[in-house]
Design a protein that fits this description.
Chain A is α/β, with parallel strands linked by helices and 256 residues long. Chain A contains 7 helices and 12 strands. Chain A has 2 domains: 2-208, HUPs (Rossmann fold), CATH 3.40.50.620; 227-256, no CATH class. Chain B has 4 domains: 4-90, Uridine Diphospho-n-acetylenolpyruvylglucosamine Reductase, domain 2; 97-213, Uridine Diphospho-n-acetylenolpyruvylglucosamine Reductase, domain 3 (2-Layer Sandwich); 217-324, Alpha-Beta Plaits (2-Layer Sandwich), CATH 3.30.70; 331-419, Alpha-Beta Plaits (2-Layer Sandwich), CATH 3.30.70. The chains are: A alpha/beta (256), B alpha+beta (455).
């Protein structure tokens, strides 16, 4: 079975994000980079499928040179090989460019099932998986929380408001992964050691033959507006303070 | 009493927002998870650096104000309850991992880091900090208590992972004890002296921790037995067979009953052993599993469930992580007195049987880190009812006395705190005098976490 998992390198959720003074992006100097957590679910599901049914797992990633670390992390978790699409021309890529680049790389590989995170936690756009499926002309199963493999098809569950939707499709297909699908494994030390020797194919835009012109352009990056300061209710009597809190919640915050 | 002038001085050392004498803040720092009576501090402070801690301690010593360090308040023996009031130093704002030296298997951390959060960060490097008390404990609290947990049978306790400490001594001086070398024969082991001292000798403000590599694969076994002694004999047999479990837990039948009742499970309500092993290959673990299975059945196991892999481990072990909360939820309104004795492995079966007999008329649950010879007798009762509570205390006393008779200890991992100080003389004899002299040498005014250890 030929399994593909797409990954993106994103800032750690704990990282303190600072916007560049000129608004052209974020300061990258102090950031610790990690694998997008939703992509971790994809890698884990790919590895589980491989363990049960055989085959191999290929990691595909569009990103700058530092994104190689994230590919190595996926290889350390147990994936077999990687494709790193790395070109300065992708520096301002939008979801459309990334999806097309992934599609071009994946077309050149045998593929039965393709996993993506349902979104990346940096730009939160949530479009790449769906665009990738379109570009490859494959069925798409999005926001999946459970997956059952049955030879030439898969059956998945995705949550919808107040219920669950069960969808079945023939393979190949693109699956985007939601929290709850699995518990991603970590990379053990022997895994990290072995990952260093696994093959990663680095390709530029010309090698995969895709356009790098983005449809969307980031006009400006601005930090979220500063939160107004909180209000502290002073006093010694808890009952009095509670009454004051109730009054403020009702009249000022209009929360109750 | 802390006066308005005192508060102003403290606010000058820190800032307005990190000093509080507010009622709710004081209440939050007056009790831990134990049954011990709350005691309010006069003021709570939130330092952010060693320098600030040093200035606060200097101030407190000048004013003769007691100082008690506070991690997360998850302790079980009243360890951080400020019984003499004074200042509680809350470390929740010193909660950063300062450096991760993955190549050296080390991390430099501040004391307010919750160990589970540390492990979340370390997992990316394939590393972890092994002691795992279960609760949301901080590293500072774990060092203070020399905490351990279910994996200590393989990995040891917190003391085995403390390489270097930055400590603020009474008076405000700062020392660095220990080094980054994996071994050292140089001088008195001061880092070890402060580990387990429950904040009575100094305030730890930074620690260099030793780390371990995360295991590649897991194997887990759950076995039930017709009698307690059958289960405890199996523990001994497995340890003596040269197998090296990562964890080896005993649960008595009524603990399984509480889990079934609380979580809607249908596990067999018999004495149960939970075991975890780890290794490099599935093949090796599979061979080990057959051996464990053989030993369990030879010792009379009634049923056995097992599996290989992280998912199987999670499935078989899920109940253990719920034990404490499930028992608590089955007796809302009552408080737990948790005995924590540990004895040599060969005495474990006797110890468990004796304990079970001692608490037969009480609402008691027995479980423990069997592979460490550590047993928790968890009694649920009402500390406000003097007659009933006297009976609980009496059972606790006779169980501790039996453990000491077996050359064991009154506390395997929860610390001395308030509840175990009455056993210190019996356990340590003349050594207790030396401990008192050490305390007097470092803290002559008895200002650091006073009212603990010594009656």
């Amino acid at each position: 079975m030929n399994i593909i998992a797409c990954v993106k390198q994103v800032p750690d959720t704990e990282a303190q994000i600072k916007v560049k003074a000129d608004g052209s992006g974020i300061e990258e100097g102090q950031i610790k980079w990690v694998m997008n957590p939703y992509d971790e679910f994809g890698v884990e599901e790919a590895l589980k499928l491989k363990e049960k049914n055989g085959g191999d797992v290929t990691i595909v990633c569009v990103g700058p040179a530092r994104a190689m670390e994230t590919i190595r992390t996926a290889l350390a978790m147990g994936a077999d090989k990687g494709v790193h699409i790395c070109d300065p021309a992708f520096d301002n890529a939008d979801a459309f460019v990334v999806a097309n680049a992934l599609a071009a790389a994946i077309k050149a590989l045998p593929h039965d099932i393709i996993f993506c995170g349902q979104r990346a936690i940096d730009d939160d756009s949530g479009q790449v998986g769906a665009m990738l499926a379109e570009a490859l002309n494959l069925p798409q199963l999005t926001l999946v929380t459970k997956l059952e493999f049955a030879g030439s098809s898969v059956k998945v569950i995705r949550p919808i408001e107040g219920a669950q939707l069960s969808i079945e499709t023939a393979l190949p297909a693109v699956v985007t992964c939601q929290k709850g699908l699995n518990e991603p494994r970590y990379a053990s030390l022997p895994g990290i050691m072995k990952a260093k020797k696994k093959p990663v194919d680095v390709k530029n835009a010309a090698a995969i033959g895709v356009a790098t012109d983005a449809k969307a352009r980031v006009a400006k990056t601005v930090p979220p507006p500063a939160r107004p300061p909180g209000k502290i209710i002073c006093g010694d009597e808890p009952a009095q303070k509670a009454a004051e809190l109730g009054k403020l919640l009702r009249e000022e915050a209009k929360a109750i | 009493m802390t006066t308005e002038a005192d508060l102003s001085e403290l606010k000058a050392i820190l800032d307005e927002r990190r000093v509080s004498a507010g009622q709710s803040v004081r209440h939050l720092h007056s009790r831990d998870e134990s049954f011990h009576s709350p005691s309010l501090p006069e003021v709570v402070v939130w330092p952010r650096s060693t320098e600030e801690v040093s200035r606060l301690v200097r101030w407190a010593c000048r004013k003769k104000v007691p100082v008690t360090a506070w991690g997360a308040g998850t302790s079980l023996e009243g360890n951080p309850i400020p019984v003499r009031g004074g200042m509680v130093m809350d470390f929740s704002e010193m909660n950063r991992v300062l450096a991760l030296l993955a190549e050296d298997f080390q991390a430099d951390v501040q004391p307010g880091v919750v160990y589970k959060e540390l492990n979340r960060q370390l997992a990316r490097e394939g590393l972890f900090f092994p002691p795992d008390p279960g609760a949301a404990a901080t590293i500072g609290g774990m060092i203070g208590n020399n905490a351990s947990g279910i994996r200590s049978v393989r990995y040891g306790a917190t003391k085995d992972y403390v390489m270097r400490l930055t400590v603020v001594l009474p008076g405000g001086d700062v020392i660095h004890a220990g080094n980054r070398a994996r071994k050292s024969s140089s001088g008195y082991n001061l880092a070890a002296l402060f580990t387990g001292s429950e904040g009575t000798l100094g305030i730890i403000t930074e620690a260099t921790l030793k780390l371990a590599g995360l295991p590649v694969n897991f194997m887990a076994v759950r076995a039930t037995f017709p009698a307690v002694r059958r289960a405890t004999d199996t523990v001994y047999a497995i340890m003596r067979a040269g197998l090296s479990p990562v964890a080896m837990e005993f649960l008595d039948a009524n603990v399984v009953h509480a889990l079934n009742a609380d979580r809607g499970l249908t596990l067999e309500e018999n004495p149960t052993l939970l075991m975890e092993f780890s290794g490099y290959s599935e093949q090796g673990l599979s061979e080990e599993m057959s051996f464990v299975e053989e030993i369990c059945f030879a010792k009379g196991a009634l049923s056995l469930d097992r599996g290989i892999g992280a998912e199987e481990r999670a499935r078989l072990w899920e109940i253990r992580h719920q034990t404490y909360e499930s028992v608590k939820r089955c007796h809302i309104g009552l408080s737990p007195l948790i005995m924590d004795v540990a004895v040599p492995l060969s005495r474990y079966g006797e110890m468990v049987e004796f304990s079970k007999q001692e608490v037969r008329d009480l609402t008691a649950y027995l479980f423990g880190h069997a592979g460490d010879g550590n047993i928790h007798v968890h009694v649920m009762d009402n500390p406000q009812d003097p007659k009933r509570w006297a009976r609980v205390e009496e059972a606790s006393r006779s169980i501790v006395m039996k453990a000491l008779e077996f050359e064991g200890t009154c506390t395997g991992e929860h610390g001395v705190g308030i509840g175990k100080s009455r056993f210190m003389e019996r356990e340590h004899g003349a050594s207790l005098i030396l401990m008192k002299r050490l305390k007097g040498l470092l803290d002559p005014e008895n200002l650091l976490n006073p009212g603990k250890f010594f009656l």
